[in-house]
Every structure is written in C-alpha cells, then in structure tokens.
Amino acid sequence: MANEYQLILDNICRYISLTDEEKQIFTALLTRRSLKRGEFLLTEGMICRYSAFVLSGCLFGYSIDRDAAEHIVSFAPPDWWIADMYSLISQQPSTMNIRAHEASEILLLSRADQEKLFIAIPKFERFFRILTEKSLVANQQRLIDNLSLSAEERYKNFTLRYPTLVHHLPQKQIAAYIGVTPEFFSKMKSKLS
Amino acid sequence: MANEYQLILDNICRYISLTDEEKQIFTALLTRRSLKRGEFLLTEGMICRYSAFVLSGCLFGYSIDRDAAEHIVSFAPPDWWIADMYSLISQQPSTMNIRAHEASEILLLSRADQEKLFIAIPKFERFFRILTEKSLVANQQRLIDNLSLSAEERYKNFTLRYPTLVHHLPQKQIAAYIGVTPEFFSKMKSKLS
C-alpha cells in the first residue's frame, strides 16, 4: 500500500494524524484513474461527483466566456487536489471544465464516499474543512488579483503558487491563467528577463 | 443560559449534537455586542477577526466598486452568520464592509477562539466545514446568477433566500443586492404585481 498511496497520505497527514487502520479505511474508498493528454475529467454542465488528487502529470480547470476565450481557473500538478467545489457541494451543474494537460494519474474520492468517511473517521472533517477554506480563499484571491494587479504582478503570483509549472507549461497556458494574450505574455516576459 | 444562547445553539444543533457541557464551553467563547443602526462591524481594508451570528436586527455585507456604487454581497437577518470569510481565513485585508442595517444584537466568535474550539470539541470541525461549504457555494452562485439571470430572476432568488426581508428592507437595498438602480427596481416591481 505504502508506495501507491504515500503521496496522498502525506498530503493529508500535514493536517491530521491517521492510524494504519484509518489509512486503510480511507484508501479503500479511492479509485485510481489514468487520463490521456487532453482528456476531460469534467465538462461544463455536468455535475461534479469527485474530488481528484493528482499523482503524476497535471490537470487544469478552466471556463469559457461568451467570446469563446478560455480562462484558466487553477492548475493541479502532483500533490494537488482539484474539483469544481461549487458543483461538488451543491450538486448543481458545473460551470467549469477539468482536463488533463498531459498524461496523468489521479485518485478519485466521490462525494458520497467522502460523506461515509466523515462518519467513519470524523477527523477528516478537519482536513476537508481546511481544504474548503483554502479553496474559498484561492477563488476570492483570484478575483481580487484580476481586478487589482497588473499582468506582471499576476505572473509573479503564478510563479509563487506553482513553482514547478513555470518551465513546464507552454506559454499559451500561463497566459490564459494570467488573463492576457499569448503575444502580450511573450512581450512581457522578454521585458522582464 | 438557555434564553440568551438558544438561537445560536439551535442553529448549530441542526448539524451536530452537543452535550450540556460542550454547549457551555462553546458559549463561554462568545462575546455579545450591540450595533446601532448604520454602525460598521468591518470596513474594507481591515482584517476580519470574527464570525458574527445575528440575534436580532439585520446586518449586510457590501463592496464599493471603482464608480463608488454599492454592491450588496449578503444580508444577515436573525439566525444567520456573517463574516468576510476570505479575510477571516487568510487574515488578509477585507475587501468588503459589514454594517448594521438597523439596531442589532450579535454574538461574536473570534478566529482564535474558533481554533481553540476545534481542539476542545472536534465536532465543531463538522459544523464549520458545512458553514464554509455553504459560503463557497453562495459566493459562486451569486457570480453565476449575476452573469446568467435576468433582474426579475435575481429578485425571485432574493425572495427565496431571504423570505423575511422582502417586506422589511427598503427597495433601495434590495435593488443594490440585485444589481439594478432603484428606479429600474421600482418599475420592475410594478410590472410584476
């Protein structure tokens, strides 16, 4: 068990301690899935039924505006969780898409199994309370940054938030996260370096 | 104790069960405060240190845009919680104001005491996990409604969300929540009735 689940258990044990038995109860609820490059985990209009934890590869969540422009909401490299939290909690149709940027391995926890987990091991309430808080803060921070920061400052925040992705993602995707055109982004980077 | 704290204990016991001793530990952490009509509980730029639970009166949270227009984010009649959750969790400066619409009585729980509560009575993790989830969903739903619903549909959602406030608040405030001018709101209501 140790190898396959070590990353997710380490992630959880940053906030709560688990006994070996509790680790087994938890990991028995997880489903492993492989995604091909470009494959969708969630599409707009579907109800989000799973939280995904990334083992390898990289996922990203994005929405499409009225002018068909893609806005990247979040990236999820290894050791990150990703879901449309709004849809997962409310069970209303999702307003975003989640897709694999490259071939990825993920672990899925369904909302129904999450509820079972809360009953079986109440300590998980703490873990998911903190995860929900972080998600709420990140959503709000993105809104504030988009309203108040320059593109350069937003790029700096991206590099702080996702240090492993700076040299890993194509410029087009970083530009879609920062909210500028690839051309503008390319000029900005030349200026910065 | 029963009378003063009955409303907040009933609110909590919708999600978790508490023994008499646990109720006493919890209520000992609360501070009661009276707000005059128009008084501020939080102003933009301050750090939000408290969750407020409304016993009587009504509070509202709002932000001011670049054109000095007031956008009401949420109302809190009796039996509702209100805070700038983003600021409370991240301890970053608040992006909204919270103010009493009329003379109000509230109970305050500080973020520091909330952390103590989680240690003393871990069941509160569940209560605040659910409260945080509801807050995240409500924020997102407001964004979606503002982008996708007509003013009439947004008014209908307001009446469903706050049935006690429909005849209680001045039209100007309901208009600021729906995101229309008072003049437009007045015409819309005549048309609807």
Strands of chain A, total number: 8
Principal-axes geometry of chain A comes out as globular
What is the name of the CATH topology of the domain at 2-121 in chain A? Jelly Rolls
Q: Tally the helices of chain A: what do you get?
A: 8
- Average pLDDT number of chain A: 93
Give the CATH H-level superfamily of the domain at 2-121 in chain A: Jelly Rolls
What's the Cα radius of gyration of chain A? 17 Å
Can you put this structure into words, describing what you see?
With 193 residues, chain A is of the alpha+beta class. Chain A has a domain of 120 residues: Jelly Rolls, CATH 2.60.120. Helix content of chain A is 47%, strand content 21%. In chain A, the strands form two sheets. In chain A, strands 1-8-3-6 form a four-stranded antiparallel β-sheet. Chain A has a four-stranded antiparallel β-sheet with strand order 2-7-4-5. In chain A, strand 4 and strand 5 form a beta hairpin. In chain A, helix 7 packs across helix 8. Chain A starts with a helix and ends with a helix. In chain A, 32% of the residues are buried. The mean pLDDT of chain A is 93.
Give the SSE map.
The structure is a homodimer of 193-residue chains.
Chain A: H1 2-12, H2 20-27, E1 31-35, E2 40-42, E3 50-56, E4 59-64, E5 70-76, E6 81-82, H3 85-90, E7 97-100, E8 104-110, H4 111-120, H5 123-148, H6 151-161, H7 171-178, H8 182-192
Antiparallel strand pairs in A: 1-8, 2-7, 3-6, 3-8, 4-5, 4-7
